[in-house]
Amino acid sequence: MDGLLYLDHAASTPMRPAAVQAMTPFLTDCFANPSGSHRFARTARRAVDEAREQVAVSLGVLPGEVVFTGCGTESDNQAVTGSVAHRGGVAVTSAVEHHAVLDPVLASGGVAVAVDETGHIDLDELTRVLRSNDTVSVVSIMTVNNEVGTVTDMAAVSKVVRREAPGAWLHTDAVQAACWIDLREVTPLVDMLSLSAHKFGGPKGVGVLVVRGGAAPAPIIRGGGQERERRSGTSNVAGIVATAVALAETDAERDVEVERVSALRTRLVESISSSVDVHETVPSSASVPGVAHLCFEGIENEALLFLLDTEGVCASAASACASGAMEPSHVLAAMGLPRKLAGGALRLSLGHTTTAEEIDAAAQAVVSSVERLRGAR
Ligand code: PLP
């Protein structure tokens, strides 16, 4: 990544060297299919079993509650679509979920609950929706928003769901949470939880779905019956081994990283806001340390991203291009952010490889790009 200022960790974060090292033997020497019956297969199977145990420890659940999937999207889809397939009824979610949750909920005729201006789910509205519908089978509320970084009070959500819809299964998309929040505090509150390895230094193409508390979402990938009939398909042994190592390392370093990255985020936002007019979409107190979501009134984020790219800054805007026009994201629309701000939205996301030098150079690039675009008006 020489010459690149990588501030797009929420999209994907570099693999941890220990994870690469752990997976390599399973790509080269120990390539057997773990479903086989010979000793070579048994070695691969043991590696998957040990990885499952390691993931379970990092999440505070039982090994039997850990299902390996093909990505975070698949884990989310299974939690929603699999629950509705198993039990019928209605799925309920929030309006700011990742499309991996929102789309299956809406496709099944479910309901998306409103959020406030910081992206927190409206608990009164959630209460109303659950009270007015006695067939809710699954509720899915994300632990951390991928676009603006808002952290959900899952204890409060769980309280409302258990009180108003005691029969519903509660799922959380915790894909953006693993680096910043001890998930042992979240798993006891929910029945299902989704993770994606490439968001915490594991490889792309591995997801985790925790299934506990009597939840039993139907499989959405059927075939050979792997993962105890919950997710068929030959196990991605190397990817699973690396996922467990990356999650354990993330877990061990979390406290230090939260402090370190929080300071870097503050430095980034202060450095930008001391030079140009900027709106911080969610205050740092409500967001994970890794996400700084900023809106620059009067400029189009497409142009800003282009200029930043020419300066080597990798960032994201999370806007969708519909009918040739940049539309503000569904997240910012649900938060009621005015169009003039949402159009100039920029997500800078930090991670385990981010340094102070990178932050200073990126802040300088953002300031000069914004000044240039504003000067050009
Ligand atoms: N959920 C959230 C909150 C995400 O941020 C992402 C990825 O950006 C996903 C789900 C999908 O994960 P994956 O890329 O593994 O399919």
Notes on the structure:
- The chain has 377 residues and is of the alpha/beta class.
- The chain has two domains: 5-12 and 254-375, Aspartate Aminotransferase, domain 1 (Alpha-Beta Complex); 17-249, Aspartate Aminotransferase, domain 2 (3-Layer(aba) Sandwich).
- The chain has eleven helices and 14 strands.
- The strands form four sheets. It has a seven-stranded mixed β-sheet with strand order 2-8-7-6-5-3-4, with helices on both faces. The chain has a three-stranded antiparallel β-sheet with strand order 9-10-14. The protein has a two-stranded parallel sheet with strand order 1-11.
- A hairpin with a 2-residue loop joins β12 (320-322) and β13.
- Residues 320-324 have low confidence and may be disordered.
- Pyridoxal-5'-phosphate is lined by residues 71-73, 76, 98, 100, 142, 146, 173, 175-176, 196, 207.
What structural category do the secondary elements indicate?
alpha/beta
**Percent range of helical residues:** 40-55%
Give the uncertain stretches in residue-range form.
320-324
- Calculate the mean pLDDT score and round it: 95
Number of domains: 2
Strand order of the main beta sheet, please?
2-8-7-6-5-3-4
CATH superfamily of the largest domain: Type I PLP-dependent aspartate aminotransferase-like (Major domain)
Order of helices and strands: EHHEHEHEHEHEEEHEEHEEEHHEH
Ligand list: pyridoxal-5'-phosphate
- Assign the CATH topology of the largest domain: Aspartate Aminotransferase, domain 2
So what's the CATH class of the largest domain?
Alpha Beta
CATH architecture of the largest domain: 3-Layer(aba) Sandwich
Report the β-strand fraction as a percent range. Answer: 5-15%
* Count, helices: 11
Tell me how many strands there are. Answer: 14
What is the global morphology? globular
